[in-house]
Amino acid sequence: MYNSKITGLGYYVPENVVTNNDLSKVMDTSDEWIQERTGIKERRHVSTEEDTTTSMGVTAAKIAIERAGIDKDDIDFIVFATLSPDYYFPGPGVLVQRDLGIKTVGALDVRNQCSGFVYGISVADQYIKSGMYKNVLVIGSEVHSRGLDMTTRGRGVSVIFGDGAGAAVLSREEDNSKGVLSTHLHSEGQHAEELSLIAPGMGKRWVTDIIEDNDPNDESYFPYMNGQFVFKNAVVRFSEVIMEGLQKNGLKPTDINMLVPHQANLRISQFVQKKFGLSGEQVYNNIMKYGNTTAASIPIALTEAWEAGKVKEDDVVVLAAFGSGFTWGSVIIKW
Ligand code: UT7
Predict the structure, then answer these.
(1) Which one of the listed residues 3, 20, 114, 135 is annotated catalytic?
(2) Cβ–Cβ contacts within 10 Å for residue 156, how many?
(3) How far is the C-alpha of 152 from the C-alpha of 24, rounded, in Å?
(4) Is 114 a catalytic residue?
């Protein structure tokens, strides 16, 4: 029996910085409202056609592979988490295989929105623990900005989300006391529509009708979020799933060296920090700079924390996410 270990991390964000004041020029919002409710100061939006969910994921992956000290041909499997794929199908996993020039290994697309990276880590961990694969590449990447309603109608959602990508290489670890100790996944489909993008799903509509309607007021093409309901569920589920992971490993909240929560809202992270009695040094937040980058938020934050020397050998590192589905999960790591 092996463990899996994160051996390489990388991230990429587009150059184009969009401040709260920039947004207030195109919709009825303000820097004060956004900062007070979310903690966000600015986010990145793609501004060139070259930046896509796949291309940003590829850039992040190259950095992660190099830092893992392996060759791209050592990658045995690709997991790609996103809610904003370049194409409706095929998913970006195969595009990464192509664009990185990796041999014909398997490529899996994960559709778990804000929990996508945590689900991806869990998949990679299980493949490595079973002995099937040695090195698995996990990517989370999003281009939200091309799909947001940038008018006052969409302000409750549009000010929150940003673009970016992060990646991790998970490799076989023979010392079972190190690496990913456990992962914990949950879902509650009862609330599927509370944070959703209904179109262009094939649920009830024919694509020919959609084309014929060509209705610019069709809101189903924009993401919908019942903000307060999502917020209330998020704080409960984040807390539960972190505690579940700690208990599974006989750990206490005070044993956490670094908690990297999905960057949904700074107020949610602060609530969780307070609930577990953690200091500011024990929780990594960067939503102020990037907004909520969904599947990319944890790998971007984890990479930044690692680069800053805030994640060290033998540290207990906890990843936790909650989002659309609802889906949520946690990962407990001994670094
Ligand atoms: O990553 C996936 C998980 N996502 C989350 O966990 C997000 C959870 N939810 C939230 O973070 C918060 O609910 C939001 C930040 C989305 C919204 O904050 P809120 O405090 O729940 O605001 P609200 O939706 O209750 O709206 C309050 C008021 C409304 O006006 P009225 O009806 O009181 O007149 C909104 O129309 O704020 C208005 N509003 C805005 N005003 C200025 C909504 N969006 C904006 C905006 N700028 N961008």
Answers:
(1) 114
(2) 16
(3) 9
(4) yes
Give me the residue label for tokens 């099937």. 132
Judged on CB neighbours under 10 Å (0-12, 13-18, 19+), 274 is exposed
Q: Annotated catalytic, 176?
A: no
CA 82/CA 111 separation, integer angstroms? 6
Q: How many residues are present in the chain? A: 335
Instruction: Report cis status (omega within 30 of 0) of the bond before 261.
Output: no
Atom 16 (ligand 1): residue with closest C-alpha? 227
d(CA 240, CA 231): 14
| Helix, strand or coil, per DSSP, at residue 283 | strand
Residue 215 has pLDDT above 90, yes or no: no
pLDDT tens digits, 228-271: 999 999 999 999 999 999 999 999 999 999 999 999 999 999 99
For residue 88, what are its two tokens? 């409706």
Ligand 1 contacts (CB < 6 A) are 29, 33-34, 37-38, 114, 155-156, 159-160, 227-228, 230-231, 234, 264-265, 268, 292, 323
How many whole angstroms separate alpha carbon 64 and alpha carbon 127?
19
Res. 322 pLDDT band, cuts 50 70 90: very high
Cα(86)–Cα(88) distance, rounded to whole angstroms? Answer: 7
pLDDT tens digits, one per residue of 29-67: 999 999 999 999 999 999 999 999 999 999 999 999 999
- The beta strand positions in the chain, using DSSP E, are 3-12, 17-19, 42-44, 77-81, 106-110, 135-142, 164-173, 179-187, 195-196, 224-225, 258-261, 316-323, 327-334
Average pLDDT of every residue of the chain: 97
Atom 21 (ligand 1) nearest CA: 228
Q: Is 262 a catalytic residue?
A: yes
Q: Is the confidence at residue 209, as pLDDT, over 90? A: no
**Start-to-end CA span in the chain (Å):** 18
pTM of the model: 0.97
